[in-house]
Sequence to fold (125 residues):
Amino acid sequence: MIRILLVSFVFFSFQDSGDVLDNIEKSIKIGSARELVKYCNETIELKIDGKSANYSRNQSEVVLRNFFQKHPVRGYSYIHKGASPEGLKYSIGKYVFEGGSYRVVMRLKKTKGVYEIYNLNFSKE
Fold:
């Protein structure tokens, strides 16, 4: 029994330590605003179709949920991922839905030892 618990603990610890960009990609691929905001800063600049605003994590969940409902995901993949010398991470991705696609630019910074999204931009292609 103890061996099972130990194996389970190691497995889940390993899962949680995965690259944050991989976890974000999974959240977007399933169209889950609830999962995606887990990787957001307390405040996030969110830009969709040219309309930009700063939102709290809770507010951004509502906005993202509406976006995912209006544009159900058909696919999402990264075009480019990188990091700056200052330690910021960024990515450019392609979000595909039935009516077209969006270019997704995401910027992350380390807050309290964890990378969090502070800027997320969906631009229709």
About this structure: Confidence is low (pLDDT under 50) at residues 1-17. The chain has one domain: 19-124. Residues 19-124 form a domain with the Nuclear Transport Factor 2; Chain: A, fold (CATH 3.10.450.50).
